[in-house]
Fold this protein.
Amino acid sequence: MNQFARLAIEAGPLAAFFVANSQAGIMTGTAVFMVAITIALVVSWRLERRIPIMPVVGAGFVLLFGGLTLWLQDDLFIKIKPTLVNLLFAIVLFVAHATHRNVMKRLLGTVLNLSEDGWRTLGIRWAWFFLLLAVLNEVVWRNFATDMWVNFKVFGIMPLTLLFSAFQAPLIMRHQLPEEPAESGPTA
């Protein structure tokens, strides 16, 4: 699947949430988000015959907390979802670091070929970043109106994540391992 299709599948549900919220409020936005993320998973499966773990976890949280939001008619649940998802990711990465397990390598090892030190450093940086996102989400939803929180979720978290990712390039370049040459067959 090309990068634009992948971006549409990953960012489409968030865009649908933003538009629906701006037109009809948080409850409708949440319902649209739940439907859109389910459609995105189905499309991803149909195109690639697999669904990466991060979108599945994210969709699970959207469906759980979105369902609670709609059932109880309380937007608290959809607002705390980013906090809990980011805390979960941070905890997994901190525990992996403490127990010398390399979760980042498992998740990204087919895309990046880094030294063990590079993987450890990348993992701990992402752990701290996810913790920061959790704290920021808490500050925004507790201190600003719902529409401001939605704007932060759409136009704050995604750009911050992309910017943080871009700032990891020097680390990745410094710890990138050379490609191993392909084995050649027997010569006659």
Summary: The mean pLDDT is 91. The radius of gyration is 19 Å.
